[in-house]
Amino acid sequence: MTSFSDLVREYLDDAFRLDPLAATAAGIHDHDARWPDLSETGRAAALDAIDRWTGRLAALDTRDLTLDDALDRDLLLAVFASGRFALSMERDLAWDPLSWIYVLGEGLHGLLARDFAPLTERLTSFAGRLEGIAAIVEAACATLGTLPDRPVSRFHTERALLDLPGIPQLIDEALAAASSLGDSRDAQAVLAHLDAGSATARAALERLHGHLRNVVLPASVGEGRLGRERYAVKLGHTLGDSMMTAERVLDAAERVYPAVRAEMARLARLLWPSIRPDESTPEDEGELVRLALEWVGADHSGPDELLDVSRAALMRIEAFCRDTDLIGLADEPLEIKWTPVFLRGWAQAMLSSPGPFEPGQKAFFHITPIPEFWPAPLRESYLREMNRHQLEVLTIHEAVPGHYLQGVYANRTPSIVRTVHGDGTYAEGWAVYVTQVMLDVGYRAGDLAFALAHWKYYLRAVVNAIIDIRIHTAGMTEEEALDLMIRGSFQEEAEARAKYSRARLTSTQLCQYFVGSLGLWELEHEVRRRAAEASGNPRGADTVPIPPIIGGYPPTPGFTYRPHLEDVISHGGLPLPLLRRAILGPELAAT
Q: Which of 64, 147, 201, 328 is 20 to 30 A off residue 460, Cα-Cα?
């Protein structure tokens, strides 16, 4: 009988053969010169593979599996179900031109960004992918607009045209890198290969631009909003939890929303003597918080200093984690740099971790610079949002102990399934959750401005979920969304407009921050209760109060943070229901 680990290796070989971009991202470089087949034939082959592997894993007798293997099996079955939904129902490649830009950017950028092999080898693979761009463009032209019940989104088409120039920029970077190789025969061969491939690729990209501009754009309509039924199905796959319906998420977010605003008002009252010592405290809580945040936002860097401010913050954060023994840190390299052009429509910041098969490679903490075409008021608004306090919160979230550290621990887990198929809700939830943990254990203790910036960031996570659901299921207008973000959650106009764009360019992903953090707080609450019961304390679980919002626990007998955090982060990227099984045990996870 084939062992489960042998079955996993066979599956991964098959998956990486079908999706060379996933292979490159994971650190498997046997397919670096190839693209996935994104034609209709390729889609049918991918669906066939999903069904074949679903059948093989579903047929396993779980009584023969260890707990870890059973978790991996269930994770893979969820991945397959999500993949089938994406290929058969969601069909982004047929209505969202921006998804093709992401494919092209991912396929080229990963070969340049990390030095997993000598530059000549990586550029040779890059040249191979350049030669294959014509087939990708052919598939895009044949696929876009083929869904009778879902027209191409005009908003996504316009954004695709805006981001498409980022692909030729990657070609220019590769040619510049090749020119640094010298005059050896191998170097000249690589340069010749790149020159030929770039000519083919640029012609194909010009064709794509013309097709988007002249064929797709005139026929496109709307913004690609999913609608209630399609959104409901996708949300279940995104969250990895069929119990967390849109209605439940929205209800939870709208209950937390006023509590967070009340906490921000409390902090603003305490800050007021430092803000305007000669004026009485405003009675209106919204106005009070807005004025306090204006004061906090005024402490911002220049647009060219964002990276340096984040680097300095990272040093302080790591020193605090070491001094408090909060969690084990990592030596794997991390670089803070500007976001690649083709990804700048996605977010203000993001973390890109290396794959599990390339240990020692860099992770990248990307920060998106201010668009050059923005007018001065919008540029200033962006900088007020990305003030020094906010950048420090963002660095915790994206770097330490957030996404970067989570990625390092994930790559160390023995389960290759979890490192290849990490769960987004767990990852985003971890970054939000652990930021509050940092404050609870004393990071920047007594700094009311920093605490206010943190709660503003958490309120953003809450509102992210609200606008994501209401935009895609309830027809939320731009005016309503901006009002909720700017007036309701005190965001700067630049941030709010960027988030409104992101909420329409994506769907369900913006719920992951809030839902994931709630799940991890629920898990910590249960771990604290069990620790208190096992401690011998006569009050037992009664020593663990229910927090008014999140966090803020008093000391719990038998509970310390480091073992708990390292337990949570050491199981790889499991969806939250599976993580509960891993930590609490299969019999107890549901209690």
A: 328
Angle at 404 between CA 78 and CA 316, to 5 degrees: 150
Instruction: Tell me which of 495, 514, 533 is where a domain ends.
Output: 514
Q: Is residue 320 part of a domain?
A: yes
How far is it, in rounded angstroms, from Cα 246 to Cα 235?
7
- 336 forms bridges with which residues in the sheet? 365
Measure CA 30 to chain center: 26
Number of H helices and number of E strands within the chain?
Answer: 26, 3
Tokens representing 428 are 């985003």
Residue 169 shares a structural domain with residue 281: no
Tokens read off for 495? 């941030």
Is there a single domain that holds both residue 359 and residue 506?
A: yes
Q: How far is CA 443 from CA 131, 222, 393, 436, 487, in A?
A: 51, 45, 11, 10, 29
d(CA 7, CA 16) in angstroms, rounded, equals: 14
Is residue 583 helix, strand or coil? helix
Residue 468 near residue 508, CB atoms below 8 Å: yes
Domain boundary residue, one of 193, 225, 257? 225
Does residue 294 sit in the same domain as residue 402? yes
Are 499 and 535 in the same domain?
A: no
527 in Cβ contact with 588 (< 8 Å): no
Considering only CA atoms, which of 67, 414, 439, 429 is closest in space to residue 238? 429
CB 319: neighbour CB atoms within 10 A?
11
Range of the domain at 319: 246-514
